[in-house]
Structure formats: C-alpha cells, structure tokens
Amino acid sequence: MNDATDICDPIIKFDKVVKRFGDHVVLDELDFEVQRGEKVTIIGPSGSGKSTVLRILMTLEKINDGVVYVGGEPLWHQRKGESLEPAGEQHLRQMRSHLGMVFQQFNLFPHMTVLRNLTEAPVQVLGVSKAEARKRGMELLEMVGLTDQADKYPHQLSGGQQQR
Length: 164
Description:
With 164 residues, the chain is of the alpha+beta class. Helix content is 28%, strand content 24%. It has two domains: 10-96, P-loop containing nucleotide triphosphate hydrolases (Rossmann fold); 114-163, no CATH class.
C-alpha cells in the first residue's frame, strides 16, 4: 500500500462499484468511503448487499465494474502507467496482507491449537514461514493476554477467549 497516502484520503473507497450475480444487480454503482480512524456500521435489510460489500473488500468476491481502493491503492486492479488493469494474484496477495476481518462467529478449527489457528492462514495463504508466523502469533496472543492458552484447543477456552 502507498505509505505516502494523504492523511485526508479515505482508507477505503468504492468508486462506482457494480456487482451482479447473473441478472441480479446487488451493487449498482456504489460510491462509499471510510476515512482513516472512522468507525462505520453497514445496516440494511437481508439481500441489500451488506455481506457482498465485505466479501469484495476481503477479495472473496470479484467486482463487475468500478474500482475499490484500500489505502489509496486499487484493490481489484493494478496500475499500468496511467491506466488500471485487472489485478494479478501477486497484487491481490500483497493487498490481502493489509486486510483482516473479525467474524461474528468464531469459526476456529476445533482440531487445531489456539496458536495454529492463528498461524495457519499466514503460512498457507501469505507464504509466511512457520517460525515467523509462530513469532507473530505469540505477539498477538500477548496483546490479548492469552499467551498461556497457545497450546490449548478451542473447546478448552471460554467464549470471550475464543473471540479474542
């Protein structure tokens, strides 16, 4: 992401984003911005596109038209001179390294320890070494006061511990 991004620039920007599922248009030229430090809630009736917006932002759902920017960089596109072209997997992987999502349901892998639940995605998706992922995982557990739970399984944790 662009470290020189102006502090006034939005951290997330949907610019005329269109998302269709077949003939059904879910997002019709959506313009949406989130400023740095701003807290946003997306509300609406079932089927209004709330989850689709999040799935697009997490690169789980491709857009049909428009541009999504994260930190001033196009998410689903990459710059080629003065124009934008569809992003390759390397660009998407690099952008994903700056994104994260906290799920409403914990969805922890029950057969993996707490630490392995934290390290599996960085190793498998981002190609981080197991040693580096373990180091970062322990740092994250320390931040939330759970280093003593690293080798436990999800069923051995309270609901609050699982959420952290």
